[in-house]
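An instance noted here:
***
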Amino acid sequence: MDLELRHLRVLCAIADAGSVGRAATDLGYSQPAVSTQLRRIERYFGEPLFERGATGVRLTPYGVDVVAQARDVLARADAIGRRPAGGAAEGRRVLRVAATNSPVLPGAVSRFRARRPDIDLSVNSVYSSARIVELLEEGAVDAAIAADYPGMELTHSAAVTHRGIVTEPTFVALPSGHRLRHRAQVALADLAEDAWFLTPDDGAGWPGVFYAACDAAGFTPLTVHEFFGDRLQLQSMIADGLGVSLVQPTLRPIPQVVVKPLAGTPLWCRYVLAWRNGAVTGELAETLFQSAVAAHRELVAQSPHLRTWAARTWHVTGG
């Protein structure tokens, strides 16, 4: 068969839904029709693009690359011939988005642009979730991706609405030569003698939740280095044996770093979509939300350590 745009839309719909059945509903097709289409598409590419499981499907590493290229092609195709009223670029709607340090941001932005090529996104990196709420309240931004923690949920006025994107566990990054590198899970207490790299106060409860978890594990960290910067630089310092760090479970480790789940999962983080009620419609908020959820699903598909852990203990859901 010849590859067509409709085939790319089917692939993206399945990747976003995480299920052939849900994708069929979203597309308005029958499930057998979408399943047949997927088999033909995979024959075209010569290898599977999705792994099948009891709860749905997830992208293979090759599928991740194919779907990323498909999104780019679809975004470009959807933009062909589009121009704002009057032909002036300044006539386009600009949606102002603030985002904390979240790995879902790039994928969420690319998906949103593919789905809504009529809207320009202006993205502002804001580390503190407390500051993000202030910007929303002030009307300086329209929507945001922020973070909070169980029992310390995001608070704001009635002018703002929020919705949980995902609640995920916090993992730990160790140098590949670390004494605990062969363990499937690492107990927080077993890291009591290690030096730690910690990001600064995020306005949502961090690093207080870390110190509380250490206290519950029966120790106080002896050496703490505050670090806020490039993730690759952080991993390089971990690889050199200068310390360990709590990390997002979707982190892609460099060869000299291993990422492990914490035994008992003492730390969790929730990513939240928040928006100003008067600035963002329900339909637009739903598009932002679905874009972020799909981006996280794709990150999970690329994270073997998280997938192994999740297969035993956790299902990826909006929280």
